[in-house]
Amino acid sequence: MSKGFLLVISGPSGIGKGTICKRLFERNKDLVFSISATTREPRRGEIDGVNYFFIDEEKFSEMIKNNEFLEYAHVHSNRYGTPKRFVDEQVERGEIVILEIDVQGALQVRDLYPEAVLIFLIPPSLDELKRRIIKRGTETEDDMKIRLNNALKELKYVNKYDYAIINDELDDAIKRIETVIEAEKLKSKRFEYNLDNIKGL
Fold it and tell me: Could you tell me which CATH number the domain at 5-197 has?
């Protein structure tokens, strides 16, 4: 059986992580989405247990104390974390688990799971990133400034990732990610053979 692995899709806020992941799951039924927990309020249309697990600060702190997160971080005055148990179970079963997380969380995953595959999504330009954040219409002017300043800092970590993909044209970015997934599936370290059953060896 082929071994599963973690595929981390990360990048600055507003880069389009959510849109890309949604399209990946529509096109690839063999991928498993890891749902993050967060203390922020749901945005319009978001559903608890589908988009995120929306929990309060007390519950989040309790999960940290009990070592229940694969990673967690403060992002824009809120806390986000990836529940560990679900991810571990899926990878053990041979599944490819997609983690859509911020840069802080991705670097924590790299420390805990060195074999995780990390993809950094890069904006074509900061002006385009700003345009996308404005179009989303969920941030104040002050929030936008914070996000753009954070984006500049986060871009410095791109060399900590395995792959860097510019999210200019959505379909092109998705195809490049799918190419990464197919290549990673074929890596010899992910296969377990019983060589005694192969004739001629």
Answer: 3.40.50.300
The pTM assigned to this predicted structure is 0.78
Question: What is d(CA 126, CA 150) in angstroms, rounded to the nearest whole number?
Answer: 11
Q: Running along the chain, 201 residues long, what does each successive block of 10 average in pLDDT?
A: 86 86 93 92 90 93 93 85 86 91 87 90 81 69 78 88 93 96 89 61 51
Q: Are 174 and 20 in contact (CB under 8 A)?
A: yes
Cα separation, 140 vs 126, whole angstroms: 17
For the record, the structure tokens of 48 come out as 């608890």
Q: For residue 175, what are the contacts with CB-CB under 8 A and spacing of at least 6?
A: none
Q: How many CB atoms lie within 10 A of CB 98?
A: 22
Instruction: Please provide the DSSP assignment of 104-159 as one string.
Output: HHHHHHHHH-TT-EEEEEE-S-HHHHHHHHHHHT---HHHHHHHHHHHHHHGGGGG
